[in-house]
Amino acid sequence: MTNRFLALLALTLCNLFSTPAFCWNGLEHMEVAAIAWEQLTPTAKIRAGRLLRLNPLYDSWIDNVVDADRDRVAFIKASKWADVIKRLSPYQPDGLSGSNGNRPSPDAKSRQNIGYKDTLQHKYWHFIDMPFSTDQTELHDPDTPNIETQINTFRDTLGAQSRVDDDVRSYDLVWLIHLVGDVHQPLHTAQRFTREHPEGDAGGNLVAR
Question: Which of 19, 122, 133, 151 could bridge to 137 as Cys pair (CB 3.0-4.6 Å)?
């Protein structure tokens, strides 16, 4: 066989068996959640399992799952919920127009923590645009609320000794599981300001692929 033929064969096989590359998707979120589950105490696992039963998608998470595995499987699948609601009725975009909903509106709904009666998508909760520049372009502070403010809010709510409705605790738990995964994605935590993108590159989303 010639080297040219081998090269063409290798290229053909790559095209046949390759899959689209996603920088951060449901699989990565579930991997992070699976690792987190193993770090929980037995008491925390029981508490998490009880709270997760309040999520509207819980029945689909544990469908055909044996009883002994339901809490763990639900915890892992819950990691995708905050992305799933972007395509799920009745959840609605709530960010500023012209930014694909990725910037918070100035009203109090951007910061509300009211449990599952909240049907806003809160896309801006998924990231924090920490600014940097490689050409001395002026920087802008990240919008709030963002992933940092929400992780702190949800952590504090779940750890609060005062009376908080389990509906809110459950909502906060599924968001927290997801956001801890998001914060491990570098493009969810940075924004580059350049002469080409003086308002920022939206966490790399405006960079041509």
Answer: 133
